[in-house]
Amino acid sequence: xxxxxxxxLAVRALEVLFALSLTIQTLEFLRMGPATADTGLWSWSxxxxxxxxxxxxxxxxVLFAPDMxxxxxxxxxAAAVWLAVYGSSLGLVVGLFVSNVLVLIRWRxxxxxxxxxxxxxxxxxxLIAQGVGxxxxxALGWQAGLWYITIQAITSYFMSGWVKIMRPExxxxxxxxxxxxxxxxxPLGPRHALxxxxxxxxxxxxxxxxxxxxxxxxxxxxxxxxxCAVAGVFHFLVFWFFGxxxxxxxxxxSFPAILWCATQxx
Length: 266
What we know:
By secondary structure, the protein is mainly α. Helices cover 76% and strands 0% of the residues. It has one domain. The chain is built from 14 helices and no strands. The relative contact order is 0.12.
């Protein structure tokens, strides 16, 4: 039984936010049913050609038949609702982990990049928590799981900033204009503020510095709160301009872990 109230709150917040993220992802996959059917654009009959071994192909042909794929998604949806209402358990997390791996295989490893990565990270954190909890130390299990999620999330932000530093288009600020020209509301108008080289440069370096300073979020709860607030705004803007709603909800699910870990270091 968990005795540490902040830990309980962090766990429940993470479970509810992650369940919401999973629900949105799964409903989108279910809506794509016609596109993944045998006659669809992303039919398994086309994607199976990437599987080199005939024995694996036969097994996956069964698992990824349209009806079986739909059943997997429906079970995943039910498990996400259960997670939000009743919390996690070893059986539930193992089922969600296997279901998620099958979905990743179905999409050749990833459907939506960063959100798929964070979904797998959180599931792995939940699996660590439940696995350690089986041996009797529930609190230690959750501490390990939350730290795993936090380290992966913070490292991801830092590496994203470091990659930007290495790219000349980000150092010059040109990347801001390039990306927004390809956004939902792009291309930018001829008099748009971000066509101004100085403002584009400022915006690009603001993102670079913020991402590279991500490890500092763990210095104190106040910094962690500020970091998560900026991250939330950043991911919402990515959703608004590029339609990547999964990024917003997937990364939001990691914030309770980051906030809790910052309190522990203090």
